[in-house]
Amino acid sequence: MASTVLSISQRSLENLQPKRTRRRSMTTNQPIRNFFAAIGRAFAFARVAFANTIIALIFLFVLISIVSVPGTPKVMDGTALILAPTGTLVEERGQLDPIDALMGLGVSQQTVVRDLIDAIESAAKDERVAMLLLELSEMSSASLTHLSDIGAALRAFREDSGKPVIASGTYFSQGQYFLASFADEIYMHPLGELMLTGMSAYQPYFRDLLDRLKVKIHIFRAGEYKAAVEPYTRSDMSPEAKEANRVMIDQLWSRYLNTVASNRDLPLEVIRTYSNAYDELLTSESGDMARVALNQGLVDELMTLDTFIEQLKQRIGEHEDTFKQIDTDSYLAAIRRPSFPSQKPSIGVLTATGTILMGDQPPGAIGAISTRNLIQDIRKDERIKALVVRVDSPGGSALASELIREELEQLQSSGVPVVVSMASTAASGGYWISATADQIWASPSTVTGSIGVFGIVPEIEATLSAIGINRDGIGTTPYSGSMDLMGSLDEGTQTVLQASVDFIYQTFLSLVARGRDMDIEDVDAIGQGRIWTGQDALELGLVDGLGNLEDSIRAAAELVELGDYDIKFLSTPLSPQEQFINQLIDNFGLAGVLSKSRWLSAVTRVSSSGVLDDVQRLMVLNDPKRVYAICAMCQSAPLL
Predict the structure, then answer these.
(1) Are residues 451 and 538 both part of a single domain?
(2) Is 226 a catalytic residue?
């Protein structure tokens, strides 16, 4: 309002000037006006040119797609199915902004775990598929839970079909190698590398930076272990956070080592020594990394790529100068048929992945409105007899979490049981939405718990004052303007915020106690913001069983006594524009092409740095009460 009054006053004063004076003023300012007008025209031209370029690109892609619509891929007899995941393994592919996607900004390749498992399970029964070939060089990161789920499918493939699984690579990260260890044979290039560097839990801390900028962070929390606020209040990790993180990563790493040792039929101590004393092993082999891996039994043979391809040609046959093969996407396109309405009852599967936020959110985030709408649709669908919620979330808004949990409880009240299946992470708000489900299942390596809440309010009054910007005014109550970023947080408002945080923490405890049939005091003892693995959560009573998504679906079917049923995967519907962009990216490999450009690679490296990730996570939080149930360390839970 003040700026409006000022502009009106200036206009009024200008109108009061004599006409000759005003004309002189306009003449004097004309060069400046022309300068800014020219800049405006330049920006307008650039904007139009950019828009026309985008439209031309879209038209070109559409034209190409019309002219060269690919037919259904053909699966040759005796072929090798190549599993070559790219980017990060995820439960659900996140939705890119359409313009960003076309420009290559924020492109992050992702592979949906369920697609890989579907391909493996189908190939086991497909007589045309002779073997599985793991090509893992483009897989950048994955959680131990997702890798274990795929590994279980590979093990079942070998046992049920008797067909071989072969892994080959010039280099294996430890995540890639974990998956490769499920293969019958592992081949590596003679100049390859395989290091097992272990797991860690590191994150950036901003306290010193904020002090230099004179930014004051007000923290309100409930829970001794609620470390989500530590990056803004400390310069290092607290002893409590180190204790909880140490327990978590030690358990996860122990599971990794035991699985690899079992898969390779090696003594556990061999794998442990490989990871702890690699420098000594490497020195003994004169720096030959590939030879270390071979001699320690982690790979079966060292072989160049050309030699490997020639062997496969002889083993399964040749086609177009290489061995007979089909990639995962083509194979899924060949075997998946359009689904038609069925009269059989269904088990619904709703994927809840990402940060929990208020409002309507795209895939890759959990929105209070969008998720509630999906659950309401399920309640109207008479064929869905039970719901499995696949949770992969570190939490977020406490209010949004409660709104989603309430909607799930309404579904339960209507007679549809809810089973939660925890993926890599289901902590804090992720556990909140799960708390009152009929059953909760987790993977042994799931990161869960973190039952605690916090509030965070930054204050930049001193920062602005240091550069000559001051704030003053009046209000009607002691709280008027007290939550303004530019103002200072008075004692009364701080009391209000801390009381709100304490109340929401008690609400959290009560929900868990009711859902898990525990005493509030017992929940508080294992709460306090502390994280647990799925294995620990089972022993503490926070989950009912250990298993994967398929185990959870079977459990849901048992609750409603279904023996024959369909599985219906549910997701937020995409707009026509989003569907179109997705088709362009998928059909023409746009994300992969753009992500390989030099300038984009530089942008991606900067934007995916830990520091910017932490700041971005803070910026998207949108709880109107500024109270969050989120596990900061879980957002960067150990990936392999």
Answers:
(1) yes
(2) yes
